[in-house]
Amino acid sequence: MRASLIQIDVKPDEPVESRRSRAADLVREQSGADLVVLPELWTVGAFAFEEFAAHAEPLDGPTSAAMSDAARDAGVWLHAGSVVERGEGGALYNTALLFAPSGALHRTYRKIHRFGFDRGEVKVMTAGKEIVTARLESPDVTLGLATCYDLRFPEQFRLLTDAGAEIIVLPAGWPARRRAHWSLLVRARAVETQTYVLACGTAGTHAGVEQAGYSVVLDPWGEVVAEAGAGEQVLTADFDPARVAETREQFPVLRDRVLGLPTPPPRA
Ligand SMILES: NC(=O)CCC(=O)C(=O)O
Q1: Mutation probe of ligand 1 site: the residue of 42, 94, 115 with most atoms within 8 A of C-beta
Q2: How far is the CA of 133 from the centre of ligand 1 (A)?
Q3: How far, in Å, CA of 193 to CA of 191, rounded?
Q4: How remote is the CA of residue 176 from the centroid of ligand 1, in Å?
Q5: Residue range 47-57: mean pLDDT, rounded
Q6: Which of 178, 183, 209, 214 to mutate to test the pocket of ligand 1 (most atoms within 8 A of CB)?
Q7: 212 CA from centroid of ligand 1 (Å)
Q8: Is the pLDDT of residue 5 over 90?
Q9: C-alpha 92: how far from its chain's center?
Q10: Closest to 16 in 3D by CA, of 27, 37, 30, 48
Q11: Residue 162 contacts residue 151 (beta carbons within 8 Å)
Q12: pLDDT digits 0-9 by tens, 149-207
């Protein structure tokens, strides 16, 4: 299986329309890959909180339309990163979009863990409530979907594993300041779930926040298959999804889980 991660530079002086058509061209160039991945909120920038509302779009909005066309033209599965979705009643969500090679919108995932503590996403967005997996055909694999800050919550990844995920796709807008956390946590999630992890971040600086880059593909043993640098780059990796079952067979740690551990006593 071949995956291409497009670590796009979210340049604050580039109009969104220009970045959208640049991203679509980059997707078209990945014809021959099975799966192409874009980062979190790459149109507006994951830290440009004040601009979220102005750039919100419905699920059939301009980003969706451009990505659908690009997926169909390239003949690839396209995880188009996430957009600010304007949903029911005007609520905003950080929503990831997965397109089939036909261009059809195959699955959406609304980010569950919103970043910003009492600011940012928490203030302006509504949290998703559903654990989302997606079965692909050709290649015949199950993706588990999570977005950026979700990475810090291992319980979500356990649930994705229980739901059959073999490849976890994580679009992100992760800051350079916490790059050490990124490298550590993506690896931890791969080791504990025994899945491939495809983690695609952004490059450049937007809203005053330097982005980490360092998109990465990890195998179910936690080894790096391919890793980007800090700048804009397309990272391509070839790997064998059958290694998920092999790893779980050879090192069957998931079988040793003890479910229903007793609840801890209340804090003193
Ligand atoms: N966009 C995000 O979710 C940022 C997450 C982050 O900066 C962190 O977890 O650290």
Answers
A1: 115
A2: 22
A3: 6
A4: 10
A5: 96
A6: 178
A7: 11
A8: yes
A9: 18
A10: 48
A11: no
A12: 999 999 999 999 999 999 999 999 999 999 999 999 999 999 999 999 999 999 999 99
Domains annotated on the chain, with CATH? 2-254 (3.60.110.10)
Atom of ligand 1 nearest to the CA of 181: 10
8 A C-beta contact, residue 130 and residue 110: yes
Q: List active site positions.
A: 40, 111, 148
Q: Check residue 97 and give its pLDDT.
A: 98
- The answer to whether the complex's ipTM is over 0.90 is yes
Please give the single-letter amino acid code of residue 115. Answer: F
Record the tokens describing residue 2, joined without a space.
């071949």
Residues 6+ apart with CB under 8 A from 188: 154, 222
| Owner of token pair 């994705």 | 160
Angle (nearest 5°) at CA 118 between 115 and 119: 65
Query: Side chain identity at 86, as an amino acid letter?
Result: R
Write down how long the chain is: 268
